[in-house]
Amino acid sequence: MMPGAFADDVRSGDRTAWLAALFAPDAARPALHALAAYRLELHRIVETVPQAMAAEIRLQWWRDAIRDEGFGAGRSVPLVDALREGARLYGWPHETLCAVSEAFIHDLYADPLEDWTAFDGYAGESHGALVQLGAMALAVSALGEAGGFAAARTAATAAGYAGVVLAAADVAASVPRRFARGVTLVPTTAWREATGEAQDAAMTAGRLPEGAAAAAAAVAAHGLAAHGEMMRHLPGVAAEARTAFLPAVVAARSLRLAARAPLSEPRPAAWRTQLDLWRAARRLNRL
């Protein structure tokens, strides 16, 4: 995998992921950059393509390109090549990579997630899978194929919780922005409990109802609970794979900000994130 091929894209699009990758060994860093760049590209499609159907077609293109079939057959795109190379080097399942793209379809339509179980499923496919793939790259790079696969398996449970952490941090901090696009990933049960009305009624009315802040805060609280579970499972994760969890570890600050100031899209100061990552890396090394 080409060293530094997507580092600049990640640095400008997700500085936390870029900084976290600096704590990884040089050999595994390009793989972490490729995974982060893939997520950023899918997010860009969802956020910038004005027609939902057109965005869904673009998401489908990525699945076809990774599989080398359909609309994406035979196309050589550097990021696609890097993801395929990751599958060859680190055993990334093609279908797992494709499922990440498919999960982003939830962010295109007013087809809400029913409850926290559905939210956790979405989080696992859209975010947790990438944490697990990062753990595989780190472990295989450090230990070789057999030992690396065994080490990566120790990360599976914690990666599931990490996915909920990362998805909750994203959703809790973007309720107004998503609502403006006619979408919300707050589960319908949490939305109704917080606002007293159905999501589709609010969407039809075109205004954030009273209680929307409480709905966003509920997502943040769900993420913080998952963060606690992730931290509880991290000691059982092989040391070689733990760097993949750094963005989720430091997401606790974003979740706490979202719980205190929902609907304001709060972001931690850059220097705080950098300090949090340094402290988190030291903490993971001591586990």
User: What's the domain count?
Assistant: 1
Give the low-pLDDT segments.
none
Q: Give the C-alpha Rg.
A: 18 Å
- The beta-strand count equals 0
Instruction: Identify the CATH architecture.
Output: Orthogonal Bundle
CATH class: Mainly Alpha
Structural class: mainly alpha
First-last Cα distance: 30 Å
Q: Which strand-content bin applies to the residues?
A: under 5%
Q: How many DSSP H or I helices?
A: 15
Report the sheet with the most strands, covering strand number, pairing sense and barrel closure. Answer: none
Spatial shape:
globular
Overview of the molecule:
The chain is an all-alpha fold and 287 residues long. The chain has 15 helices and no strands. It has helices at residues 7-13, 15-21, 29-48, 52-67, 78-90, 94-103, 116-143, 145-153, 156-172, 175-180, 188-195, 199-205, 212-233, 246-260, 270-286. The longest helix is centred in the middle third of the chain and has 28 residues, at 116-143. The radius of gyration is 18 Å and the shape is globular. The mean pLDDT is 94.
Per-chain topology:
Elements: H1 7-13, H2 15-21, H3 29-48, H4 52-67, H5 78-90, H6 94-103, H7 116-143, H8 145-153, H9 156-172, H10 175-180, H11 188-195, H12 199-205, H13 212-233, H14 246-260, H15 270-286
Can you summarize this structure?
The two termini are 30 Å apart. Helix 7 packs antiparallel against helix 8 (145-153), helix 7 crosses helix 9 and helix 9 (156-172) runs parallel beside helix 14. The protein has helices spanning 7-13, 15-21, 29-48, 52-67, 78-90, 94-103, 116-143, 145-153, 156-172, 175-180, 188-195, 199-205, 212-233, 246-260, 270-286.
